[in-house]
Amino acid sequence: MTGRATYRHGDVRAECLAITLQLLEEVGEQGLSMRNIAQKMGVAHRTLHHHFQDREGLLRELSANGFKMLAERLSASLSPPRFMETYLRFGLEYPQLYALMMRQRADAGLGCERLQIARQQVIALALAALADGEADPDQARRRVMRSWMLLHGGLSLNASGTLMPRDSEAFVAEMMQIASQRAE
Asked: Would you say 100 and 70 are in contact if contact means Cβ atoms under 8 Å apart?
């Protein structure tokens, strides 16, 4: 008797998240379904429902992983210029994941504790790197928001094709120049 071709050992949840990230970057969010992810994994699509309530739950978990990956990279980059450059490079390396992460509403974290925690880690790192020793919490938050809006705006305009096409290095250099002029 031969075993089922779809019988699996290992961490189905972790493999699902890794394959979903790969597919997200290849085909975009619209091309993702629980069926095509399961097919790529070699499991029945019902198997994924043991780990994720639905497609949106899977995407929230993937977003949590994205924020965790971003936080890990940013934690070694706490000077303002290094933080900004690291943030930009992450957005360029994972454009679809970055867009998915930024589409997660703040209240989406209420249904996904990992997303809430990972997002808060990125915010805490941004405050540490970009608040520039500001004692007033409201001013510190505003300073971070200005920088984050600049970075996110640049990445969004670049990804949408609104900006003249540049290679990644030229884009990062231009954004860093804009950021340094804004700081003066």
From this structure: no
Query: What distance in Å separates the CA atoms of residue 119 and residue 152, rounded to the nearest whole number?
Result: 15
Domain map (residue ranges) of the chain: 1-52, 54-183
Tens digit of each residue's pLDDT (9 = 90 or more) over 101-139: 999 887 765 678 899 999 999 999 999 999 978 889 999
Helices marked H in the chain: 12-27, 34-41, 45-48, 55-74, 80-93, 95-103, 113-130, 137-160, 168-183
**Residue 32: pLDDT over 50:** yes
Given the structure tokens 């399961």, which residue do they identify?
38
Highest CATH level, class, for 1-52: mainly alpha
CB contact at 8 A, 96 and 163: no
CB 21, CB 97: distance < 8 Å: yes
Structure tokens at 103: 């589409």
CATH number of the structural domain 54-183: 1.10.357.10
For 92, the token pair is 């360029």
CA 73/CA 20 separation, integer angstroms: 21
